[in-house]
Amino acid sequence: MMVFGLVAGVASGEVKVELAGLQVTAKGYVPKGENEFNSLRAFNRQLGTKVGLLVTSSDKAIVKLDEEKSKVTVFSDDQETDLIKVKGRFGRKSGVFRMTSEAKDGKAIITHVESSGVPKKGAKNLTLKGGLVVSLASKSKEVRSELTVLKKGEKLVVGEDAFEVNSLGKPDWGDDPIQVELKSSVSYKDFKGFHFYDSEGNKVESNRSGSGSMGIFGKRTYTVSFNLKKKVDKIVLAVDEWSDLEVVKIPFDFTIGAGL
What DSSP letter does each residue of 163-212 carry, written as one string? Predict the structure, then answer.
C-alpha cells in the first residue's frame, strides 16, 4: 500500500525537511518450494517500509547529503515495533539513508529511510526522528590544472585534489570521439561543475556520461566519466569549486499516519 501523509515540515534556517512519501510492502505470496527471493509482492519491491524525505533550500544550493553522518534515532510504530533493529537479506541494515536524488536547480533533494521490517497490524502511525547532515553553498570559483598529456595513469591536479585518468577510449555508444574516466578520492558532486580546455585554451565541449564509487576499509574511491566532443592529446581540467561551503545539521521529528 502506498500512503502519503501530510505533516508539518521541519525547518532549520533556510533549509526545510518535509515528508515526501511512505511505502509499506507486506510479505506477499511465496510459491511452494520457493524462497523469499522469489515471492510475489506489491510494487515488485522487497519486504519493508520506506519513507521519503524532501529537503529544500530557499537560498543556497544543496551540494550533497552526507548519508553516513546523517542519522535516524527513532523509526518505530505505535505498537513498539523498532524498525531500525530489523535486518534484511544478507545483513542489510535498516534505518539508514539510501537512494538520494537531486533537483536540476540544486535547491532540493529527496532521500529515503528504509527498513526491512513492517509495522504491526493495527498500527496507526509511525515515528521517525533523526538529523540530516547537508552541505550548502552559493558561490564558486574556477580552478584549473596544468596542461597535461591525456593518457591513462596521468594525474590532473586541481587545487588540493587529484584526478587520475582511469580509462580512455571511444565511448560504447554515440558519435563522440573520446571518453575519459577520472578516478579520485573526492566525488564530482563536491563541485559545482567540471570543464575541459585544449592546449590553446579553448573550451572542449563535454557531457558527463557516468559515475560510480567503491568503498573498502573505510576508504572510498569515486569515478566520473565524460564524453568529449573533440579529440585532444593534451588537456586542462577545470572545476568550479565551492568557495562558501557550509555543513549544517537539520533535525527532523515526524509522526506519520500508517498501517496495513
Answer: EEEEEEE--SSSS-SEEEEEEESS-GGGSSEEEEE-TTSPEEPEEEEEEE
CATH code at 40? Answer: 2.60.40
Tell me how many domains the chain contains. Answer: 2
Q: Are residues 134 and 180 in the same domain?
A: no
* Distance separating alpha carbons of residues 88 and 108, to the nearest angstrom: 29
- As separate numbers, helices (DSSP H) first and strands (DSSP E) second, the chain gives 0, 20
15 & 38 share domain: yes
C-alpha span between 164 and 197 (Å, rounded): 17
Would you say 192 and 158 are in contact if contact means Cβ atoms under 8 Å apart?
no
Same domain as 148, residue 36: no
Residue 241, beta-bridge partner list: 141
pTM (predicted TM-score): 0.77
| Grid cell for residue 31 | 510459491
Clarify whether residues 33 and 64 are in a common domain.
Answer: yes
pLDDT (tens, 9 = 90+) of the chain, 260 residues, equals 223 333 344 445 589 999 999 999 888 788 887 776 777 878 767 889 999 999 999 889 999 899 889 999 999 999 999 999 988 776 788 888 998 998 989 899 999 999 999 999 889 899 999 999 999 999 999 999 999 999 999 999 999 999 999 999 999 888 999 999 999 999 998 899 999 999 999 999 999 999 998 888 778 899 999 999 999 999 999 999 998 889 999 999 999 985 43
Nearest CA-CA partner of 132 in 241, 223, 51, 46: 51
Nearest to 16 by CA among 76, 59, 77: 59
